Amino acid sequence: MSSTQADILRDFARVPADIVRQAATFQPAILADVAGRRGALHGRIKPLHPRMKLAGTAITVEVRPGDNLMIHAAIALAQPGDVLVIDGKGDQTAALMGTIMMTACQQLGIAGVVMDGAARDSLDIDAMDYPVFSVGTNPNGPTKNCGGRIGHPVTVGGVTVHAGDFVIGDADGVVVVEREKIASLLPLATKKVQDEAARIAAIKTGDTAAKWLTSALRNAGVLREGETL
Known about the structure:
Elements: H1 3-7, H2 17-23, H3 28-34, E1 46-47, E2 54-62, H4 69-77, E3 82-97, H5 99-108, E4 112-119, H6 122-128, E5 132-134, E6 136-137, E7 149-150, E8 154-156, E9 159-161, E10 166-170, E11 173-177, H7 182-204, H8 213-219
Parallel strand pairs: 2-3, 3-4, 4-5, 4-6
Antiparallel strand pairs: 1-5, 2-7, 2-10, 8-9, 10-11
Helix pairs in contact: 3-7
């Protein structure tokens, strides 16, 4: 087997489509909470426009800073519903993708792009209403010279992402949940949404006190036993 073949893993298990559809109904914040407050990418990775949302399964890509050769390869291999999750090493000196590549992604049914790197043609992408999350923009174009990897674990925004993991993003940012874990979180997410709605309703009737606060302050040593705010 050549090194090129080893660097590209074409076959990996994905989150079933019905689980993706169910999980996509929740906010990333809800899923991060029920996942133990884990899986949220660093806040430097943001949508190009706050209204942008995405949900799907990760196809992971590792590139050299400023080079997008392997992203082109990943687009050719991706399946509808995949999200390109690109480890661009946080580089902002050149854009990894622009209008042409995003148009191809949209045409192929790729659910969106998350990259620890820069994009360009942001106004065009906004007009396309195609969900792109990046560390920012840069008008400089990429090179297409360097090898990389597809389908291998990557680190994006400080989070390890495996091919096939569940990815979801909105104005708050991006959350990744392990493929094997996402289905078990759906009942917990449903309960959390219900609990939060009940708490908000109670606050609106005047019940604004945080019942846990005094105990937490005592445990932290801020209040002595018997002392209150």
